[in-house]
Amino acid sequence: MNRNRAIWLTALLLLLTLVVFETTSLDLAVQDRFYDPARGWLVDRRAPLPQFFFYDGPKLAFVVFIAVVLGCLLVPRAWFPRRPFSRRAAGFLLVCIGLVPATVGLLKATTGVSYPYQVERYGGVRPYRNLVQSIPYVPGQPRGKGFPAGHASGGFALMGLYFAWEGRLARRLGLAAGLALGWTLGLYQMLKGAHYLSHTVVTMILGWLLILIVARIFRLDEPAPAAVAAGRADPS
């Protein structure tokens, strides 16, 4: 597929996803499954063990991963010969790791969407408002910071491993790792009432769109020279 076409198709998918969630009650239908008016959310927001495994622990692991990527970028090859990423791939990953959460954070600060646990339907005090209803600033009306999903954005940023590693299998494993981590963190937030389904889905697609753009800039979305040569040599 043409690389620029992939970017435009992902942008279109993001737009269609927003339309679907804004014109249906899918978010509420899914979130209702995680909340019982008598017992609350399926996962207690204050429970220390889930918070460690799905919130604090991943943050610590993320910091360690960033340190490794920084080492690949800054440490001389003689000191770090068996590095997992080339310097260009390491620079690309650092941009993705910074750009995806930063973009999500900027949107969270401006969209005004409340977290599920804050709305009346789930024991809170605020009326439920979708994205379009939440964006306009209304004096005296409380504004949330729930959209998109910030915690999952760090996991989805690791989808950039698809372009940082070489080889079809390695790339697919890298993409799978980013998706698995992003959805693990996103589902944890949904189960404790911190996000709706749309928040996580939009974060995933937006993250992939940003990664595609950065990969285009770094020229990491182009086939490797060996692969190109092999393709030319193949008479079929």
Describe it for me?
The chain has 236 residues and is mainly α. The chain has one domain. It contains ten helices and two strands, in the order H-H-E-E-H-H-H-H-H-H-H-H. Strands 1-2 form a two-stranded antiparallel sheet. A hairpin with a 3-residue loop joins strand 1 (35-36) and strand 2 (40-41). Helix 1 (3-23) runs antiparallel to helix 9 (197-218) and helix 6 (150-157) packs antiparallel against helix 8. The chain is globular. Residues 226-236 have low confidence and may be disordered.
SSE string: HHEEHHHHHHHH
Unreliable residue runs = 226-236
Rough shape? Answer: globular
Judged by helices, strands and strand pairing, the structural class is mainly alpha
Question: What portion of residues is helical?
Answer: 55-70%
Write down the domain tally. Answer: 1
Count of alpha/pi helices: 10
Q: How far apart, in Å, are the first and last alpha carbons?
A: 19 Å
Radius of gyration: 20 Å
What percentage of the residues does DSSP assign to strands (E)? under 5%
Biggest sheet strand line-up: 1-2
The largest sheet is: 2 strands, antiparallel
How many beta-strand runs?
2
User: Can you give the mean pLDDT?
Assistant: 90
